[in-house]
Specification:
- The structure is a single chain.
- The chain is globular.
- It is built from 13 helices and twelve strands.
- Helix 3 crosses helix 7 and helix 9 runs parallel beside helix 13.
- The longest helix is centred in the N-terminal third of the chain and has 22 residues.
- It is α/β, with parallel strands linked by helices.
- 41% of the residues lie in helices and 14% in strands.
- It binds pyridoxal-5'-phosphate.
- The site of pyridoxal-5'-phosphate has 15 residues, from helix 3 and helix 4.
Length: 389
């Protein structure tokens, strides 16, 4: 049974609005394969921890090269389980980039720990190792919190600067986690993401490169003891038998139905990644000189969850967004506000300025990049950004 690959030459009327995320087109392409997998679950009725969960865990471990994979209920719960396993809690500082999705920061707070926001690189948008060193020094000097962990985020499909993060974590004695929610399928130095840190968390939210049809997530690790702890924590802290409770855990299991959907989608995942890369290259070629195109992290491959350009300033971004909208081209702002300036987090922030994150938030704009885009639609996006046609 071969996966249905993207069809960039299929006819789409020029006047049709372009979708930012095209789940109906994805359904038309993959629906039959997904339904076969879902029907199998409907037949065996093991909706919680059915055989598809273990099958998906094996497939994701094989894909990433990690020794262990633990399927969980979402990317956020994956982060929470990893942090709980390290015993992170009140008085602990968890360092993470200010320019990321809110989920990365909310988990430390839910556990009573404090997120410490770090600035990012102005070209790659990834966490900046120099800022990380400075923020760790700030926290040690203030003496109020105990530095415990670093969460590196692979933002927009590209890898964080892992060699530098590993050096800092080892030198400072900190636990290192990879929030790879946006970037599964990406690679660094020829190696798929999933083994850059002690634990790597994935999200299968429908808009991520490998998306389910609902919530889902996973944790990758090479450490069998941690994997066992993650399995216990995702099922109420259970021990060898269901009614032996070893620790406070949670209900954090991956649904069998979502595992079934993901098994069907994993078959065509590499073809989707190749299509995203081709679209990114077409954008690079067509948009350079009109807006600042995204810099590539050296020696890496992106999963292209997001293709983000930079305009000169906020008014230029507003003008571009309006022009795109007028031509049926959607765009989105990731992220309009860095986390240290969000109402929910401001009170936990020590007041440090993080100028790069603040500047990016004021002029970044994401263009549609998904495998269902046709060549004609890609050309329309480029013409609309150029202001032509
Ligand atoms: C989406 C996302 C998450 C959360 O994943 P969910 O599955 O939606 O809980 C965490 N971190 C980052 C960087 C994300 O983009």
């Amino acid at each position: 049974m071969t996966a249905q690959h993207p069809a960039p030459d299929r006819p789409v009327p020029d006047s049709a609005p372009i979708a930012f995320l095209d789940l109906p087109a994805q359904q038309a392409r993959l629906g039959d394969a997904v339904r076969r997998r879902v029907d199998a679950v409907m037949a065996h009725c093991r909706f919680v921890m059915g055989p598809e969960v273990a099958e998906l865990e094996r497939a994701l471990a094989a894909y990433s090269g990690a020794a262990e994979c633990v399927g969980v209920s979402s990317g956020t719960d994956a982060i929470q389980i990893v942090m709980m396993a390290e015993g992170i809690g009140p008085g602990d500082a968890v360092f993470l980039p200010a320019f990321t999705y809110t989920a990365t920061a909310e988990v430390p707070l839910l556990l009573g720990a404090t997120p410490v926001f770090v600035d990012v690189d102005p070209r790659t948008f990834q966490i900046d190792p120099d800022s990380l060193r400075a923020r760790i020094a700030d926290i040690r000097a203030a003496g109020r919190l105990r530095p415990r962990a670093i969460i590196g985020v692979d933002l927009f499909g590209q890898p964080a600067p892992w060699p530098a993060l590993r050096t800092i974590a080892a030198h400072e004695g900190l636990f290192l986690m990879d929030d790879c929610a946006q970037s599964f399928g990406g690679a660094l130095s020829g190696r798929k993401l999933g083994r850059e840190a002690t634990a790597t968390t994935l999200s299968f939210f429908p808009s991520k490169p490998l998306g389910a049809y609902g919530d889902g997530g996973a944790i990758l690790t090479d450490d069998p003891d941690r994997a066992e702890l993650y399995r216990s924590l995702r099922t109420h802290g259970e021990g060898r038998t269901r009614y032996e409770v070893l620790r406070t855990g949670m209900n954090g299991r991956l649904d069998t139905l979502q595992a079934a959907v993901l098994l069907a989608k994993l078959e065509g995942f590499d073809a989707e990644l190749a299509r995203r890369e081709a679209i990114a290259r077409a954008y690079d070629a067509g948009l350079a000189g009109h807006v600042a195109i995204p810099a590539r992290v050296p020696d890496s491959a992106s999963a292209w969850a997001v293709y983000a350009v930079l305009t000169e300033d906020t008014p230029a971004r507003e003008a571009l967004q309006a022009r795109l909208q007028g031509r049926g081209v959607p765009s989105a702002i990731y992220y309009p506000r860095p986390l240290h300036l969000q109402p929910a987090y401001q009170a936990h922030h020590d007041g440090a300025r993080l100028p790069v994150a603040e500047d990016l938030a004021s002029r970044i704009l994401a263009l549609p990049i998904h495998p269902e885009l046709t060549d004609g639609e890609v050309a329309r996006v480029i013409a609309a950004v150029q202001g032509q046609g």
